[in-house]
Structure to design on (218 residues):
């Protein structure tokens, strides 16, 4: 007796062909369909990666990606280190209020990467996500810097009114920074990895995670 659980490959092929014909018919009518992978696209990407100029064996794009990440991390940790001191001594917040805003900012910075990853994967890609939200990040820092000044144009040296900065400005700046870092954080590492050929992944992964290199970078 034949085993009924054994599938007939001819039937599976017929089912695949029927599905492909239906997909083509729907596409002809204007309905969106899932296209089959095309080797020519992969070949074009491979040729583009091979044609990129290199510096010390690395693609020329890598220094720019690392510089972006360095500036973002330097800004974030440098500002976060003195944030509670600034809130209590300059914005005259209580310790409890400053602690609340500090933790709200840090939590938002680690929640917004979900939004950044969604934007990059579904809508505009990693490059544009990094570019646009890096500008948003810079805008947040500018808002914090500008609103940190109490009164821009005092009448004279004796005019001491409104020197104290308002807290709403820096707090708005913090929310903008959190949105900006959410776009950068999930995209930079994977975008950097995209610059390499598949044959180079193992080689450069070993170099990065050697003890001396790991300590230097991180």
């Amino acid at each position: 007796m034949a085993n009924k659980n054994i599938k007939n490959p001819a039937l599976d092929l017929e089912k695949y062909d029927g599905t492909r014909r239906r997909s083509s018919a729907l596409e002809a009518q204007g309905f969106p369909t899932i296209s089959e992978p095309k080797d020519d696209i992969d070949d074009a990407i491979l040729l583009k990666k091979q044609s990129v100029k290199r510096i010390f064996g690395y693609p020329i794009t890598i220094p720019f990606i690392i510089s972006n990440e360095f500036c973002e991390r330097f800004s974030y940790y440098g500002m976060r280190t003195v944030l509670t001191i600034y809130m209590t001594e300059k914005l005259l917040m209580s310790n409890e209020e400053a602690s609340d805003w500090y933790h709200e900012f840090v939590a938002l910075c680690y929640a917004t990467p979900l939004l950044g990853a969604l934007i990059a994967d579904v809508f505009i890609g990693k490059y544009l996500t990094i570019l646009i939200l890096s500008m948003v990040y810079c805008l947040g820092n500018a808002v914090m810097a500008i609103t940190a000044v109490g009164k821009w144009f005092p009448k004279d040296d004796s005019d001491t009114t409104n020197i104290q900065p308002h807290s709403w400005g820096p707090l708005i700046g913090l929310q903008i920074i959190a949105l900006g870092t959410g776009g950068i954080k999930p995209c930079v590492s994977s975008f950097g990895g995209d610059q390499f050929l598949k044959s180079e992944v193992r080689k450069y992964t070993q170099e990065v995670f050697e003890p001396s290199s790991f300590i230097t970078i991180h």
